[in-house]
Predict the structure of Pyridoxal-dependent decarboxylase domain-containing protein 1.
Amino acid sequence: MDASLEKIADPTLAEMGKNLKEAMKMLEHSQRRTEEENGKKLVSGDIPGPLQGSGQDMVSILQLVQNLMHGEEEEESQSPRIQNIGEQGHIALLGHSLGAYISTLDKEKLRKLTTRILSDTTLWLCRIFRYENGCAYFHEEEREGLAKICRLALHSCYEDFVVDGFNVLYNKKPVIYLSAAARPGLGQYLCNQLGLPFPCLCRVPCNTMFGSQHQMDVAFLEKLIKEDVERGKLPLLLVANAGTAAVGHTDKIGRLKELCEQYGIWLHVEGVNLATLALGYVSSSVLAATKCDSMTLTPGPWLGLPAVPAVTLYKHDDPALTLVAGLTSNKPADKLRALPLWLSLQYLGLDGIVERIKHACQLSQRLQESLKKVNHIKILVEDELSSPVVVFRFFQELPGSDPVPTAVPVPNMAPSTVGRERHSCDALNRWLGEQLKQLVPASGLTVMDLEVEGVCIRFSPLTTAAVLGTRGEDVDQLVACIQSKLPVLTCTLQLREEFKQEVTGTAGLLYVDDPNWPGIGVVRYEHANDDKNSLKLDPEGEKIHAGLLKKLHELESDLTFKMGPEYKSMKSCIYIGMASDDVDISELVETIAVTAREIEENSRLLENMTEVVRKGIQEAQVQLQKANEERLLEEGVLRQIPVVGSVLNWFSPVQASQKGRTFNLTAGSLESTEHTYVYKAQGAGVTPPQTPSGTRAKQRLPGQKPFKRSLRGSDALSETSSVSHVEDLEKLEHLSGVPEPDGLEPGGPEPHPGAPPPQEAELTGAFQNGAQRPEDDRPQVEEPESLR
């Protein structure tokens, strides 16, 4: 490119192209600073400072721009990075620099150049998208062109609108018809820009019985138009969709055009499917858009061109009205808006433009054909074979459920059941969409919530493929990721109802219905002091659930657990994630209940022990004070005097008993230390209670993780063998401990050769328990008290 720049005669243009190339290279490929420089950068970049008097060079300014663009990437690692644009993007960016340079020319040269740029770009776009004899309006905001078209329609229908303004509209109010599937906020934007009240908007519903549920109902529209005419209103403009913003469906533009010609209504068409007009084969519904009064195109996303304006093509014979409406302008700066697109179209050429749009359509068709072979995936655009938008969602037919999502309730099914299953699938589809976006970022997927179908995933390569560089391999990877996630989705959906039933039937647990959680379910433990009617934060419950979460993580199972507030309150709950394998729900619920109950009991034991220790200390202080008073009375006052007491104790020693107090934590009582001083050992005390455990302890195979459901036969065999082994051990202990007088029972095991006879074994066992042998039955000499 440097050699090409040398051939340019104008040194300013050559220098501009060279500087742009160097600037883009620095912003895209330069290395980041070190950690110490990053610290200085954050101080100087985030906090505005005074403007330097001496100024800065271009490299320092571009470095500052780079720091501001990429400075937060370490803190926000999940945020998408700026895409690396190609050379065609550099051409589009060059157009903005050239526009500023061209504006410095003299007026005559500027007029000729801007007129040439505007006429060339308009001619090329009209021929590419089959819109003959049209004019073009270039605008930055996509909706701005439609607002100008509405203003043109007002001036065309109301001749005195320029002079009288809104007074002309008072007697015959205009009506703008929008589809219910139009982009959100479009009607409000038009009213704000035109100064019209909201009653001037008419929302036309979509089909409910026949055809796509995302297409405008033409029969209902005709009914609305007749009613407005009878009421003295003026039908002004109709906005049709060639590819709705949500699912990419196309209205029946041919029938809508006939209806608009009958009632004198301006027909405007917009949508992503208009890009297919550049292809050799175009569907009849989209091809009918070439006969409309105006259309809005967005070539920037379609071709992967940054900072390229949108274009509104229209047909009108009166240049004065178009000038009043703002569609044309005498200002050169307004005409220079087309310069970036003028440069980009020449760089790509007709073949390059068609190839990019064709590639995007092939990607959508490839995904659509692949998803038809995948189970549990429903495609919402099966009748739109030529649509470049694919919308799909995960679904699974459960017993007694409606396999096809519908807005009409099923007679044999409760509405609550329909809503619950709808929310369950919505949460799973939202999780699936987020997973696919992370695994295949080049796919450009979008997760959206439709009114009838619920949460769906949209693949629209026309708006993302040129920028992200999506290829056929990315589509194949996307299908493979969907297939890999299906077992997790199906298993989780099947276990949800079983989990709910187990939690409902377990004492102390409460099932929390959270429609936004994609996992197995949400459960909350109700402790003894839990106020079920309160929605406020529960500190005691939060402490128990925090300990429960820690215990569940220590089990190292394949399930994921997390703690968070309840869906409709501030109380803490345990959220159980997706299940990739068959999970033993009964064991899971029992483990949660037992562990939570154990944590609650331990916390209450600690609280009770604290109170008991406090009371024990107070009682010990009272008793020790009382013992000191008794010792003072017993020894006398003279013995308390330092010198006199020592002399008296030497002549007449006092045998004072050592008395103290010990606190038994297990029994919670205050005891004397006399036993400790006499026998030189502390008592055993009371045995602490056993830790509560589950009603059944599942035996796992080596390497088997918790909550895994093993084979039924192996479980039954292991339980039977363990029970029989325990019974045999109990029989042997009974036989060895309490034998019959005449020997072993009939059929019992043979005695060991070295074992003593039964009578001797009985005596030996008795002596081991502390009894005396016969030969030791002699008088015992009492040990002197001084030696004790």
User: Anything to note?
Assistant: The mean pLDDT is 76. The CA atoms of residues 756 and 764 lie 9 Å apart. The longest strand covers residues 234-241.
